Automatic annotation (TrEMBL):
InterPro entries from the UniProt entry: FSCA_dom_sf, NIF_FeS_clus_asmbl_NifU_C, Rieske_2Fe-2S, Rieske_2Fe-2S_sf
GO biological process terms held by the UniProt record: iron-sulfur cluster assembly
Function: May be involved in the formation or repair of [Fe-S] clusters present in iron-sulfur proteins.
Endpoints of the signal sequence: none
Organism whose genome encodes this protein: Mycobacterium paraffinicum
Gene3D superfamilies documented for this protein: Fe-S cluster assembly (FSCA), Rieske [2Fe-2S] iron-sulphur domain
Domain Rieske: 193-287
GO molecular function ontology, one term from the record: iron ion binding
Protein name listed in UniProt: Rieske domain-containing protein
Keyword tags: 2Fe-2S, Iron, Iron-sulfur, Metal-binding
Transmembrane segments: none
């Protein structure tokens, strides 16, 4: 299998993504010096944020007067700028538009699992969604909900405090809190996303293995879409190293079982590959792994 070592992420990009955590760490360190020091540090942060917010508001007014809607769209789609606009309440899109756009970004992944998601309504700080298709029958449905849909919604609309999933089955009306659906995942802690830009370099029809921490990830590209699975064949309990694509079918080189690479790895007689969420986050293709997996990413043969 072809393996490419990922390029090092731009340091400035990686740094701003964790700025909030670093600020909180510094505030916590100030708290160790006593209430007075903590209050002064908190007030300092508040004043700096207020000053930059006022300046950013004036900049936005000037830019929008000069550039109009096109400029607003460019600002809204830049991850760093959009995050600052959200902090200061200056984002040009309302919460309904931001949630809808976030769901559009995860739809290709849900489609690979034979499902979709509809935005029912945004009621105050509550978002109500309805899943359609076969998402809930997929073995990674809980991971899909938490690491794809919920992650995308909360990133786009941090003011949302509750995500509710409306049941789509006839005869069972009502609302299921996301927390209930995610109980199994939460019992093991939340999973996390790891940048894997090398997966985006796969050519159509190509299959490759990658090491993500202690996990071997098998990735393949069908048309213009990339899919990721754990390197394990459920039919013969062996590695998929050497697997090849036959159209959209990923064939195990040992037992010759075919799995539908496009539709969540479905195979014959109920056999099913273990799919891993694969989405573009902050402009970088990233793979989601359970919390037990280490963060370090490196290229290695599968």
């Amino acid at each position: 299998m072809k393996v490419d070592r990922p390029d090092t992420l731009d340091e400035s990009e990686a740094r701003w993504r964790t700025a909030g955590d670093r600020i909180q760490t510094l505030l916590d360190a100030c708290a160790a010096s006593g209430p007075a020091a903590q209050e002064r540090a908190t007030e300092l942060v508040r004043e700096v944020v207020g000053l930059y917010g006022a300046g950013l508001q004036r900049i936005m007014q000037c830019l929008l007067q000069a550039g109009g809607p096109a400029t607003a769209e460019r600002l809204a789609t830049d991850d760093l700028v959009a995050s600052l606009l959200l902090v200061h309440g200056l984002h040009p899109h309302d919460v309904h538009r931001r949630v809808s756009d976030a769901l559009d970004r995860v739809r290709p992944y849900l489609g690979s699992h034979g499902g979709d998601v509809d935005l029912i309504e945004v009621d105050g700080d509550t978002v109500r969604l309805a899943f359609t298709g076969s998402c809930k029958s997929c073995p990674s449905s809980a991971v899909t909900l938490e690491l794809a849909v919920e992650d995308a919604v909360r990133a786009a609309a941090p003011e949302v405090s509750s995500i509710e999933v409306v049941t789509a089955e006839p005869g069972t009306p009502g609302v299921i809190p996301a927390e209930s659906l995610l109980a199994r995942v939460h019992s093991n802690g939340s999973g996390s996303w790891h940048p894997a830009p090398e997966l985006a370099e796969l050519a159509p029809g190509e299959v490759a293995g990658y090491r993500v921490g202690a996990t071997t990830v098998l990735a393949c590209r069908v048309g213009d879409q990339t899919f990721a699975y754990r390197d394990h064949c459920p039919a013969c309990d062996a590695s998929l190293a050497g697997a090849k694509l036959h159209g959209a079918q990923l064939r195990c080189p040992r037992c010759q079982t075919d799995f539908d690479a496009v539709h969540a790895g479905a195979g014959v007689n109920g056999a099913h590959l273990d799919p891993l969420p694969l989405l573009t986050r902050d402009g970088v293709l990233s793979v989601a792994l359970p919390p037990r997996e280490p963060v370090h990413v490196m290229g290695a043969p599968a």
